[in-house]
Structure formats: C-alpha cells, structure tokens
Amino acid sequence: MKTDGTNGRDLSGGPDPELESIVPQASPPPLPGPGDGLAATVRGLLPSLTPASARIARLIVEDPAQVARSTISELSALAGTSDSSIVRTARALGFSGYPELRLALAASAARQAPRSTLTSGITRLDSPADVMAKLVHTESQAVLETETQLDPGQLLGAALAVCGDGQLHIAGVGASGLVAQDLHQKLQRIGRPCHAHGDSQSALTSAVLLGPGDVFLAVSHSGESRDVLEPLRRAADQGATTVVITNHPQSSAARLADFVLASAGRETTFRPGAMASRISQLVVVDCLFVCVAQRTYEKSDHALRVTRQALESDRS
C-alpha cells in the first residue's frame, strides 16, 4: 500500500514508485550543512523550545560566531541557564552535544559575509535608501534560506498528492491567505481544479466533506493559527492528505500534516511575521507549482497555451 510522508495514510489505490521512495522527515528535521541556513533552522524551531532553550537559540541566531567561541560555561552565563540546558538544546537542534553544535556554528559563521548594518532591523530614522537596502537584503536572505529549509522529499510528496484527481482545497488567513490565492491562481492556469479559502468557516465546512484521495493544503507562518488548525485537523480525520506551508516545522500544523513545506522568513521591527513570511512562502508555492506542472506536463502545457492566448486576445 502506498503511504504518505509522515502519518502513513494511503494516498491512492495503486503503487507509485516515486511516492513510495520518499523518506519521512525526521523530528526534528536534519540541520543543513555549515553555512547553509543553520540560523534559519534554529529560528524555525524556536517556538517549540523550552524557555531556557529558547534563550540559547536566540543567542545562536543573533551571533553564531560568539556562541561558537564560547565554552559551555561561558554560554550558560550569557543565557542565564545551566550547562545541562545547553546540552539539551544542542540535542533538540539535532546535534549529539554542544561540541558538535560549536563546530557547526563556527563553520557557518566562517562562510557568512561580515555582519553589517543591513542585518539589523529598520529604524524610524532610516532613509528611504536605507529601507530599500535593508528590505532587499532581508528578502534575498529569506529566499536563500528557504532553499535550505525546504525538503525535496516533502516537496515531491506534496506535488504528487496535488497531481491526483481528488478535490484540492487551499486555506490561509490574512497575509497567508494572499499566498493561498496565489497558489490557487497558478494551479487554475494549468487546469488543476481547486478551491481557496480565506476564512475559517469556509475552510472548515469544506474540510469535513473531504476524504481519501482529496488534499487539504494550509498556509500558516506560525503553524498555530486556529483558523487553519481546526480545518486541517478535520481534513486529516476524514482521511484527506494534508500539506502545510509554514515557517515552523515543529508547529501544531506541521505535526498534523502529511507533508511539511518549510519556508524561512525573519521578522524585524517594521517587518512583522506577515510580511516576513510572504516572500519565502511564495518561493515554496512556485516550487510546488513547477513540480506539479512537470508531472502533468502535456495537460499543463496545453492549459497555459490556451489561457495565454485567451488573455492576449482579450488585450487586443
């Protein structure tokens, strides 16, 4: 029987070698190699950590080079925690202990560009030129870090599920709703029928009518929004395949999902989570869309040509 990436539910009646070859994502997910988004991974796991571990993780995100230079006693003093808390944090982040974490942080810091004012948040005194430079830098980093967080196996599993013949419902509220609408529009252009929901009631009433072979995809930066959690839970209970696009791969939504598509967006003073998540989520949406189009090439190519011709005719 063919199963999904995490919960082991049957996705269809027939075998699919591509889907069966997917290795379930570990918990916590494997950390990227040195210099390849380690800070982004730590940020994504922050909400799932204990208060003591979260203090240590914030130090890692803010200055990985300083943490790499610190002994375990020095770091425990900086974070106001115990040595044992540091060891537990290192293990929660996927390392065997603090020495391994220090080595990874040292390598990561060595590969990063020197710290500059571009890495700081926007202030009320910044000029328009400063705002432009900082936003472009931050959003470019979000795109690059999303590549390190998005697991190819999870992406493939989600794409194959979306390629199925069942119903597809996409849910997101607020800024995440705009991302859900973007995916909805893209899939409609290649002839994949789907529905997008921007409020919890619409999503919930659709979720309870789904079943095996159907797909429910939720977009949530935090992965804790009640507006998508309950519909996601009900869709899973009905046997539908569940997919989540989120910045936090250990969130409640991620734990409910068969496939987790992790994004990476960092907040700043004038750039709250809603803004920080949008660019990285759109990168994930584009990756998912292209993977689906690849696997439905003839149908997608025909649909894109027909819709393009229709738009060109309408403009002439």
Write a structural description.
With 316 residues, the protein is α/β, with parallel strands linked by helices. It has 15 helices and 5 strands. A 5-stranded parallel sheet has the order 2-1-3-4-5, sandwiched between helices. The longest helix is centred in the last third of the chain and has 23 residues, at 273-295. It is globular. It starts with 16 loop residues before the first helix and ends with a helix. Residues 1-36 have low confidence and may be disordered.
Key terms:
7% strand; alpha/beta; 316 residues
The tally of strands reads 5
Strands ordered across the widest β-sheet: 2-1-3-4-5
Portion in helices: 55-70%
**Could you describe the largest sheet, including whether it forms a barrel?**
5 strands, parallel
Mean pLDDT: 82
Task: Work out the helix count.
Answer: 15
Strand content: 5-15%
The low-pLDDT segments are 1-36
N→C terminal distance: 52 Å
In angstroms, what is the radius of gyration?
21 Å
Give the overall silhouette.
globular
**Helices and strands, in N-to-C order?**
HHHHHHHHHEHEHEHEHEHH
What layout of secondary structure does this protein have?
Layout: H1 17-20, H2 38-45, H3 51-62, H4 64-69, H5 72-79, H6 83-92, H7 98-111, H8 128-149, H9 152-162, E1 168-171, H10 175-189, E2 195-197, H11 200-207, E3 215-219, H12 226-237, E4 241-246, H13 252-256, E5 259-262, H14 273-295, H15 297-315
Parallel strand pairs: 1-2, 1-3, 3-4, 4-5
Helix pairs in contact: 2-3, 3-5, 3-6, 8-14, 9-14, 10-14, 11-12, 14-15
